[in-house]
């Protein structure tokens, strides 16, 4: 069960991070290579709409794996010094990543309401882009980088969590907890 939980956690997080980063780096900019501004909006919207169900599945897998890992490590959470703080940090970052991802999707839906809206790229408006879409794109321009930054931080904390499971770290953490 621990292998399944860890796999769901890691693969889900990897897809959430990697897909969001790839779309920010390439899809939004590649849409600007379309033949005209209206096609650029359609390309960006189509790409993000195709990514959304995959991203949702990745997030779901990550969350299921996270819950499984919490259950599997519940004894260490309270007994080993530092594990509770690490778990709290991971939970906080996960909530932040979920919030930013969800809000980005709401903004994306505003952009997507008009499938042929003129844009320079996925996050760059033209002079004729409707004002509501311009506002959403300005926010998305920042949030497209926030998602991989937060999920990347989760990857780093997950690596740290793995280090906390080494036998010498467990011994040290248990001793520290009981000798305080």
TrEMBL record:
Q: Which domain of life is it from?
A: Bacteria
- List the keywords (alphabetical): Membrane, Transmembrane, Transmembrane helix
Q: Which residues cross the membrane?
A: 142-162
Name-wise, this protein is Uncharacterized protein
Species of the source? Spirilliplanes yamanashiensis
């Amino acid at each position: 069960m621990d292998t399944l939980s860890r796999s769901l956690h890691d693969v889900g997080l990897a897809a959430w991070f990697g897909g969001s980063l790839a779309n920010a780096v390439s899809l939004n900019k590649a849409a600007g290579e379309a033949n005209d501004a209206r096609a650029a909006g359609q390309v960006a919207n189509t790409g993000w709409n195709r990514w959304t169900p995959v991203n949702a599945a990745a997030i779901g897998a990550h969350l299921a794996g996270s819950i499984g890992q919490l259950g599997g490590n519940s004894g260490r959470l309270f007994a080993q010094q530092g594990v509770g703080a690490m778990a709290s940090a991971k939970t906080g970052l996960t909530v932040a990543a979920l919030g930013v991802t969800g809000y980005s999707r709401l903004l994306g839906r505003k952009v997507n309401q008009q499938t042929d809206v003129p844009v320079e790229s996925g996050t760059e408006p033209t002079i004729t882009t409707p004002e509501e879409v311009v506002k959403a794109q300005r926010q998305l321009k920042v949030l497209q980088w926030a998602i991989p930054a937060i999920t990347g931080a989760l990857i780093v904390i997950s690596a740290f969590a793995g280090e906390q499971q080494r036998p010498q770290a467990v011994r040290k953490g248990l001793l520290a907890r009981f000798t305080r």
